[in-house]
Design a protein that fits this description.
This protein has helices spanning 2-25, 32-46, 66-78, 82-107, 110-121, 124-129, 136-154, 161-175, 179-194, 196-199, 208-229, 233-247, 266-274, 278-304, 306-322, 337-349, 354-379, 389-398, 414-419, 429-436, 454-460, 481-491, and strands at residues 53-55, 58-59, 406-409, 425-427, 443-449, 465-469, 473-479. Helix 4 (82-107) packs across helix 16 (337-349) and helix 9 crosses helix 15 (306-322). The strands form 2 sheets. It has a 5-stranded mixed sheet with strand order 4-3-5-7-6, sandwiched between helices. Strands 1-2 form a two-stranded antiparallel sheet. The chain has 2 domains: 2-378, no CATH class; 389-492, no CATH class. The chain is of the alpha/beta class and 499 residues long.
């Protein structure tokens, strides 16, 4: 048992460490990661821990601040880098892996718990979100913490788990808002409907009134301070983000992006992508068992076993809630995956046939290997991304004190904002023309679309010279009037400092 445990642990550590390393090598690609990274960088820079800022002067009302707090704190400790901003999500994922272990061991066995952890850690969305600057890992941590605590308390556990139930709510409310309560409430209510007799007497084990007061005391102050500091926050966040966003597929009220208009029911397809490769294999295995005449056993076992029924409703809750919503993303599936992984982990632990044993080993390696190869190709330049890291780095290495800030014509990507430390500018052609005649800079660094022809570049400035390009843009250097004055002065034997 010890040897088997050590092998399992080594594999799990290798999976988590592979993602840990990739966090430092993979640049931020537009749009989600650099957008949230820049919000966290501004929080660390300004010291404003109440209001996240989308850009200076524009408050970010789209999400509560917990993820930004952790990322800004990581910047304070490790400095500004991809690694420091991704590190909190990695820690949140490690915490969820442990919660999966704890619940699976409680319901079944150590062997099931081992496979459940491996399944969860190697699902596509889990592995990706473990090293990504997003809010979803913190929402999933909060919902998982609450639901695991609830299950353990219902099974007879006491002590801190009674209070961790409410701590998970706090994490959810401060990372994503009231959505956390919905994703927690759906599985609990459904499970109580299925197992009322077993659970009715156990509900009193939770300190409901004191726990709710603790939750309110930890959550409400920020919501109140946020509204007082930037009035309008509560209306936008509570009504807009939690009602209009999901009822209106083309909701035009999003201040920070665009609505994701998906067909209703698309969330179930997202589940297949998010749980890849395990979800697809598990569904195929379940279908085979169903058609082999094991239908009654599957249904009876699910209904009669409170542990299985709780895992099932917890895994289904996000899909049930978002089925009729048109504005969805595949990351909304993450709160489902810890419980999906435990259900699949039991199946994986029971595979005794040689072919199935080899299959599950390959499934463990599939996502980590694919993503590690992709990260390696990107780090070595074989694969290009929608990121401005290289272009901004080139500008920072070549510019002098008399040169202009980095100017993006008409469109400033989030990655350019982040990698420039907030100094890159968005400007129109008219604004650039005014800057050219202002005699302010020796050289203008201007970024235009890569699709611009030589004639369009010449139309911007006849002296414009392309110095580099990436997947989307080309960087132009345009001599300014300050440069022309210096050239004339040098030709007449007069130093520019004498002018």
């Amino acid at each position: 048992m010890s040897k088997r445990f050590n092998v399992w642990l080594l594999i799990l550590v290798a999976v988590l460490v592979s993602r840990f390393i990739g966090m430092a090598l993979f640049p931020f690609a537009d749009t989600t990661e650099p957008r949230y990274a820049e919000i966290a960088r501004l929080m660390a820079e300004t010291g404003d821990w109440i209001t996240p800022w989308f850009e200076p002067g524009v408050p970010f009302w789209g999400k509560p601040p917990l993820s930004f707090w952790t990322q800004a704190a990581a910047i304070k400790v490790f400095g500004v880098s991809e690694f420091s901003l991704r590190f909190p999500a990695w820690l949140a994922t490690v915490a969820m892996v442990w919660l999966v272990w704890r619940l699976a061991r409680q319901i079944w066995s150590v062997q099931v718990a081992q496979w459940s952890c491996l399944v969860f850690a190697t699902m596509a969305l889990t592995y990706i979100s473990a090293g990504a600057v997003m809010t979803d890992a913190f929402l999933a941590l909060g919902t998982t913490l609450t639901l695991v605590s609830f299950c353990l308390v219902m099974a007879g556990e006491g002590g801190l788990w009674r209070w961790i139930f409410f701590l998970g709510m706090v994490i959810g409310l401060l990372s994503k808002g009231p959505l956390a309560i919905v994703l927690i409430g759906i599985p609990i209510v459904l499970w109580l409907c299925l197992s009322w007799r077993e659970a009715a007497n156990n509900l009193q084990r939770l300190p409901w009134w004191r726990g709710i007061l603790m939750t309110a005391a930890l959550v409400c102050p920020w919501y109140i301070l946020a509204e007082l500091k930037t009035p309008g926050f509560l209306d936008y966040f509570i009504v807009g983000e939690h009602v209009r966003r999901f009822l209106d597929p083309g909701w035009a009220g999003d201040l920070y992006g665009s609505a994701h208009n998906q067909p209703k029911g698309m969330i179930w397809m997202f589940w297949l992508w998010a749980s890849f490769p395990w979800g697809f294999v598990a569904l195929v295995s379940l279908a085979l068992a169903w058609f082999r005449g094991k239908r009654r056993g599957i249904v009876n076992n699910t209904i009669s076993n409170p542990g299985i029924s709780f895992l099932l409703v917890s895994a289904l809750a996000p899909m049930l809630f978002f089925t009729l919503a048109g504005n969805t993303l595949w990351t909304y599936i993450l709160p489902s995956l810890p419980f999906t992984a435990i259900l699949i982990g039991r199946w994986a632990s029971e595979c005794q046939a040689f072919r199935l044993a080899r299959l599950r080993g390959g499934l463990v390696a599939l996502v980590p290997v694919l993503l590690t190869v992709f990260v390696s190709l990107t780090a070595t330049g074989w694969q290009s991304l929608k990121t401005e890291k290289a272009l901004v780095s080139y500008y920072q290495l070549t510019r002098t004190a008399d040169d202009s800030p980095l100017i993006y014509l008409d469109d400033l990507p989030f990655s350019a904002r982040f990698y420039s430390g907030g100094t890159a500018l968005e400007m129109t052609k008219g604004g650039l023309s005014n800057l050219q005649t202002a005699e302010a800079y020796q050289r203008l660094y201007v970024v235009v679309s890569r699709t611009w022809s030589d004639e369009e570049v010449a139309g911007l400035a006849s002296s414009a010279r392309k110095v580099m390009e990436n997947r989307r843009y080309q960087l132009l250097v345009i001599p300014g009037l300050l440069h022309d004055q210096q050239s004339v002065s040098d030709a007449n034997g007069v130093r520019s400092s004498d002018i």
